[in-house]
Amino acid sequence: MEKKQLVSPLIEYMTSKEMITDVTTPISESVKQVQLTFAASGIYGLQIWKPYYFNPDTTLNGSTIKGIQAVTTTEVNPTPDGSSTFNADVYAKLLLWLVDSGGDVVTTLPLNQLVASSSNTIGTAFPKVQRFSLKDIVWQKCYVTIHDTVGITAGESLYLNIYYNDKEEE
Amino acid sequence: MNNLIIKRSQIVEFQFTGTPATLKRYGALPNPQLQRNNVILYGIECFTAAQLTATPTGNTVIADADKDQVVVTLVDTNKDQFIYNFPITSLIRSDVGGFVTLFKPRLINLNDCYVQLTDATGVSQDEVVAFNFYYQLVGE
């Protein structure tokens, strides 16, 4: 007789509603990197509370965002274009704002919570990526704010891994 | 092991207005999106200055050293205090093995939720305790 795993109705309900997931399940079908490099002046000049908008991204705009990871100096440094990433401590000073096609802020997150190798870690051997289920995000409307520029240097980059599923594959 | 998927989230602040006092109830700062009683809360996370130095409204978040002096009470739309005097340390991800605290989904009444200080030592006037509420809207 086939063995069937017992699952509580509450877990089954929350799983079906995409409120929870097993942390060992695959995250997404694709992943891409998004980079935002800060400067001494201009649009990306360092300033507190200023919204730093991301560039339009036609791949991500039509996709379902399944996970986001803030990449630190522990994972990659420098980035492919040669700029430095942030160390994990700096991320407590940044907020990520994700906005949908209607202009609503869907989620506001301290970037510290998206670092897979520090506070978001089960023990030390099992870093995990924060999961999302966001179907209507418009990337050029999303932005980052900084609360405190101490410790952030012009030329350093915010570097994110965005895990996504293509719309056609959903 | 299950952990939370973010569908929607909002940062909610509870501010210690006036001289911080033990066991006084401090309510949430206005948050129109979460105060319409159509919010199904299924997870919550707390932040100290170690996770977030300042909130989107510019308020200073309490020091990490003070996290063992605060408890939170959450109330649903039936006026049920389904989380009562819960230590916020148990809601800080890095203190609970990297997990976000999950609830049986229920309609939250943010107007009636509050935090209390069990000890006001070290907490300054107008500092806030910040939470991220993970939710979906009714009908979604």
Structural account:
- The model of chain A has no long low-confidence stretch (mean pLDDT 88).
- Chain A has two helices and eleven strands.
- Chain A has one domain (28-169): Sandwich (Jelly Rolls).
- Chain A has a four-stranded antiparallel beta sheet, with no helix packed on it. Chain A has a four-stranded antiparallel beta sheet with strand order 3-10-5-6, with no helix packed on it. Chain A has a two-stranded antiparallel ribbon with strand order 7-8.
- Chain A has helices at 9-16, 58-61; strands at residues 20-22, 30-37, 52-53, 64-70, 94-99, 105-110, 121-122, 126-127, 130-134, 143-146, 157-165.
- Chain A starts with 8 loop residues before the first helix and ends in a 5-residue tail after the last strand.
- The longest helix of chain A has 8 residues, at 9-16.
- Helix content of chain A is 7%, strand content 32%.
- In chain A, a hairpin with a 3-residue loop joins strand 7 (121-122) and strand 8 (126-127).
- Chain A is mostly beta strands and 170 residues long.
- In chain B, 0% of the residues lie in helices and 39% in strands.
- The model of chain B has no long low-confidence stretch (mean pLDDT 93).
- The radius of gyration of chain B is 14 Å and the shape is globular.
- Chain B has one domain (8-137).
- Chain B has 140 residues and is mainly beta.
- Chain B has a four-stranded antiparallel beta sheet with strand order 2-9-4-7, with no helix packed on it.
- Chain B contains no helices and nine strands.
- Chain A binds chain B through residues 10-11, 13-15, 17-24, 49, 92-93, 95, 106-110, 112-113, 118-123, 126, 128, 130-134, 145, 147-148, and chain B through 1-11, 42-43, 45, 47, 49-54, 56, 58, 93-94, 97-99, 102, 104-105, 132, 136.
- Strand 1 (20-22) of chain A pairs antiparallel with strand 1 (2-6) of chain B.
